[in-house]
């Protein structure tokens, strides 16, 4: 699936060409997805998230758990098919 991505006002905007739809992610969620793409494990991402955003361990694990299903979308597993918008 082809898509374009762009950062605007602290958000990551992903436009899907075939369906002409888009998704907007806040940067914390996008960063978690990016770390999953780099094959960092759940505990490592949750620890980073807790430290970086000054969250409790439970809050960080809950947030990472909520974002994790998005990282399973096939478009995020195929970065070679993505393109940055101009």
Throw out a few tags for this protein.
single chain, 86 residues, alpha+beta, Arc Repressor Mutant, subunit A, 4-stranded mixed sheet, 3 helices, 24% strand, elongated
Structure description:
- With 86 residues, the protein is of the alpha+beta class.
- It has a single domain (3-79), classed as Arc Repressor Mutant, subunit A.
- 43% of the residues lie in helices and 24% in strands.
- It is built from three helices and four strands, in the order E-E-E-H-H-H-E.
- The protein has helices at residues 27-37, 42-52, 57-71, and strands at 3-8, 11-16, 21-26, 82-84.
- A hairpin with a 2-residue loop joins strand 1 (3-8) and strand 2.
- Helix 1 (27-37) packs across helix 3 and helix 2 (42-52) packs across helix 3 (57-71).
- It is elongated.
- The model is unreliable at 79-83 (pLDDT under 50).
Low-confidence stretches: 79-83
Mean pLDDT over the full residue set: 83
Order of helices and strands: EEEHHHE
What name does the CATH topology carry? Arc Repressor Mutant, subunit A
Strand order across the largest sheet: 3-2-1-4
**Largest sheet data:** 4 strands, mixed
How many separate structural domains? Answer: 1
CATH class: Mainly Alpha
Using the 3D structure, state the CATH architecture: Orthogonal Bundle
Note the overall shape. elongated
Strand composition percent: 15-25%
Class computed from helices, strands and strand pairing: alpha+beta
């Amino acid at each position: 699936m082809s898509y374009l991505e762009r950062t605007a006002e602290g958000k990551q905007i992903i436009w899907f060409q075939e369906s002409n739809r888009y998704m907007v992610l806040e940067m914390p969620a996008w960063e978690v997805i990016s770390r999953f793409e780099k094959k960092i494990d759940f505990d490592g991402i949750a620890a980073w998230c807790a430290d970086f955003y000054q969250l409790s361990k439970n809050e960080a694990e809950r947030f990472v758990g909520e974002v994790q299903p998005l990282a399973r979308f096939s478009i995020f597993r195929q970065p070679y098919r993505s393109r940055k918008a101009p």
